[in-house]
């Protein structure tokens, strides 16, 4: 799973940067910035591991928390919060898509390891994919961003559902997993740049 692990670490770095920018724009101090970055990057994993009743991965392995802290200092050093519309830059949007898809696949893999059915796999993929951002937004008293933008959470659900089907068919080699990863990233980028979204009810 080396390739997927690299993608997950890139996702953690991207999510930590997103949390850093989110908190700075809301005038948080360094503790608030750290909490926002930590929850954005690792909150989904906390939620996933709580559901399957196992020790949080981020508390039994050093790399996730080290990446979060490194990105905090790097983001501050590069003054990313001073750059206008950085969250709309192609590199940021792409790494955010990597974050979403890699976390969603990991959530689906963990769900299947614990014998979950299709509903459990899809919902654990969703929790792992968007849970960190949702926890952060609730903490900061905002409507979760993933519930009102494009197909963000929908991409996570689709990825989880496809992985369940792949596992059922026996297509779980690295080749197929990375194929799903590429599909998910392209799907998210297409949804972002083409403005795809689910229909809303008229008031």
Automatic annotation (TrEMBL):
Residues in Glycine transporter domain copies: 6-74, 95-166
Membrane topology recorded in Swiss-Prot or TrEMBL: Multi-pass membrane protein
InterPro entries per the UniProt record, alphabetical: Gly_transporter
Presence of keyword Transmembrane: yes
GO CC term, one of those recorded: plasma membrane
Keywords of this entry: Cell membrane, Membrane, Transmembrane, Transmembrane helix
Parts of the chain that traverse the membrane: 6-23, 30-47, 59-78, 90-112, 118-139, 151-169, 175-195
Location of this chain's protein in the cell: Cell membrane
Family: Belongs to the UPF0126 family.
Protein name per the record: Glycine transporter domain-containing protein
């Amino acid at each position: 799973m080396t390739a997927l692990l690299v993608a997950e670490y890139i996702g953690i770095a991207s999510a930590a940067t997103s949390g850093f920018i989110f908190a700075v724009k809301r005038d948080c101090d360094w503790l608030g910035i750290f909490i926002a970055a930590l929850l954005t990057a690792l909150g989904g994993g906390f939620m996933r591991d709580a559901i399957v009743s196992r020790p949080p991965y981020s508390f039994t392995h050093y790399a996730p928390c080290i990446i979060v802290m490194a990105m905090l200092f790097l983001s501050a050093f590069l003054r990313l919060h001073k750059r206008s519309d950085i969250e709309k830059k192609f590199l940021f949007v792409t790494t955010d898509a990597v974050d979403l898809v890699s976390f969603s696949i990991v959530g689906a893999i963990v769900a299947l390891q614990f014998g979950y059915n299709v509903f459990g796999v899809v919902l654990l993929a969703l929790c792992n994919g968007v849970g960190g951002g949702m926890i952060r937004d609730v903490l900061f008293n905002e409507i979760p961003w993933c519930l009102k933008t494009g197909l963000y959470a929908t991409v996570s659900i689709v990825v989880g559902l496809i992985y369940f089907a792949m596992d059922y068919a026996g297509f779980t080699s690295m080749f197929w997993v990375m194929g799903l990863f590429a599909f998910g990233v392209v799907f998210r980028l297409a949804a972002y740049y083409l403005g795809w979204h689910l229909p809303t009810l008229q008031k």
